[in-house]
Amino acid sequence: MGIIDRVKEDFYQRICTEHILVLTSLDVDALCACKILQSLFKADDVQHTLVPVAGKSDLQSAFADHADQVKSVVLVNCGGCLNLLELLQPEEDVRFYLIDSHRPLELDNVYNQDQVNIVMREGEVLEVPDFDDLYASDVESDGGYDDEYFSDSESGPQSKRRKTDGESSYEARRRRHLWKRKREEIMYKYYEFNNHGTAASLVIYELAWKMTRNSNDILWWAIIALTEQLLHEKIDRERYVTDMHQLQPDVIRHNRSEDETTSAVNTMRITFDNELRMVLYRHWTLYDSLCNSEYTACKLKVWTMKGHKKLLEFLADMGLPLSQCKQKFSAMEVQYRENLKQWIDDRARKYGLDDVTYGSFIAQFGYKHKLCASDMVYCATALIESPERPFSEAFLNALDALSRNNMSKVQAGLEIAKQQVVCTGPFIYAYVEEGTPSVKYFSKPMTLCKLARFLRESWIISNKRAKDLPFILSAPLNVSEGTCLIAGIPPHSEDTHRSEFTRAFQHAADRIQARANFNHFDGSVIEMKMEDRGKFFDALTALSAF
């Protein structure tokens, strides 16, 4: 296997003398990983070309445009689930370095030792089937007959072949038949679910650490990427806590208490603290944040009269005047701002908000700006999926926003982030109708998935049976072309970080011959013609996968 876990020796030192092509997907983890890579490349004067790609077609065209200029290609959160050599048809001297958190990885990439290298964090284990169970050359060559010659019938050409070749050939064909059946079972189990491994940014952060270049900025970008995995339900809380604890020693080392006396406008200080599961409350009004945060809105059922009354009671119980809650958080009186977290934590259980906090990190930029890691996740997501710019331009704009001297772009991203159901038996689906306010924001993958998770939680509150059902959300993509975007998220009651939609979507689309485009690197997001959508949902209903 072409697995690289010595990221400095076997990855960076091999490529740093060449012109490198960096292809990256459009997500926050990839964004942060590219920012860290660029920082390292800049320090070593490494020539590179960065190209954001939205899907397989962009990946093909980007590689084709630069194939004659580069021999080393780094793919960040893209290409790992595709057969790269088959898709891109590269020259034999081109080397690919995959830094991809998507799982499962394409096995042809994993077992290619010549051109494809999987870059992983040291000590991480990649669970893949045994090579001999997939590519057993002895079974392929022994006997060498296709399945058409293996039959239980004793008449016809099969029996004649058996008589002339003898018992050994029969046994060889039987072995091959059993091996192929076992291989199909192994492949099905391996590709059955989609999940995520270590964030690409954490892999690159380990590289920076080994090169003793893990500055506070690089550490902050790695923290943002890890937080994105938690908020977008790519990993569970246990995995998040494990990775977070691995970063904490570096946070302490880079932000010692004596540094407090050296605060200045251009310094950054990172601290660990419990954070509220409330969206952008430091940059919004407390009232709006409570009403628009998935956790608090669904727990309190704020869309109902009873739930809204409960919200007002919650605020009154904390002694927070409604007039204070409806003005910008930074304009609230100091006593309310400083005690808010403690007051909410003290009364959370009374109002069913048992899990309202989680451990996170906060960055203080000089004397003025204070950002939680979750704030930066929402900001970066909004900038990447901005409907006002082409995706490549939007990605580069989000990349600039990660720099501490571009706070104006961060503020713009935070403003965009603030703007951003039918049960049918085996799953729940919902439509975002054409003409819906802000529909342009929901035609982007990450934003659509975020809305889907919100709707799933709110529907569960009203219908307990829905807890065991997957949720599918569709939104208009291109009205003139008659296309829509469809995203699927797993049931709340199961392991919410493993999805079987990739296989289910593919089977359903094949069954009805839908005009669907599986262009996204995340298989649980597809594009489809609007007129095929109804038949597609009918086909999904019929599938036993649900």
Number of strands: 17
In DSSP terms (H or I, runs of 4 or more residues), the helix count works out at 23
Mean pLDDT: 84
Strands across the major sheet, in which order? Answer: 1-7-5-4-2-3
Low-pLDDT parts are: 140-164
Structural class by helix and strand composition:
alpha/beta
Strand content: 5-15%
Largest sheet: 6 strands, parallel
Helical fraction: 40-55%
Radius of gyration: 26 Å
Globular, elongated, flat, extended or rod-shaped: what is the shape? Answer: globular
Give the N-to-C terminal Cα separation: 34 Å
Features:
23 helices; single chain; 6-stranded mixed sheet; 6-stranded parallel sheet; 46% helix; alpha/beta; 546 residues
Task: Show the helix and strand layout.
Elements lengths: L2 E2 L2 H9 L4 E5 L3 H16 L4 E5 L3 H11 L5 E5 L7 H5 L6 E5 L2 E2 L3 H4 L5 E4 L11 H4 L2 H5 L15 H9 L1 H25 L3 E2 L3 H11 L5 H16 L5 H18 L13 E9 L9 H7 L1 H7 L4 H13 L4 H4 L8 H14 L9 E9 L3 E4 H12 L6 H11 L5 H11 L4 E2 L4 E4 L13 H18 L8 E8 L4 E7 L11 H12 L3 E2 L7 E5 L3 H10 L4
Parallel strand pairs: 1-7, 2-3, 2-4, 4-5, 5-7, 13-14
Antiparallel strand pairs: 6-8, 9-10, 10-11, 12-13, 14-15, 15-17, 16-17
Helix pairs in contact: 2-10, 2-11, 10-11, 11-12, 11-18, 14-21, 18-19, 18-20, 19-20, 22-23
